[in-house]
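User: I'm preparing a small set of examples for a lab meeting where we compare how different chains pack in three dimensions. I only have the primary sequence for this one, and I'd like the structure in token form so I can line it up with the others. Please keep the answer compact; I'll paste it straight into my notes.
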Amino acid sequence: MKELIETIVKPLVDFPEDVQVNVQEEDQRVTYQLSVNKNDMGKVIGKQGRVAKAIRTVVYAAGSSEQKKIFLEIIE
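Assistant: Understood. Below is the structure token output for the 76-residue chain.
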């Protein structure tokens, strides 16, 4: 899943080397924390959050086979 997020986000940004995905696993949930360069934040979020929503939709669909709830957080 981490590789999927990186594959989606890296072509969108100007600084792909700054893209990092951290994973936090708990009992019933997995949280992926996406961190990008400050200058690329707007590109990842998109107008009215459309790009972020699309990324989340793909990630949630890919993780629907797992038994845990998946969350994607975009952090600075």
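A couple of notes for your slides: The radius of gyration is 12 Å. The chain has one domain: 2-75.

User: Perfect, thanks.
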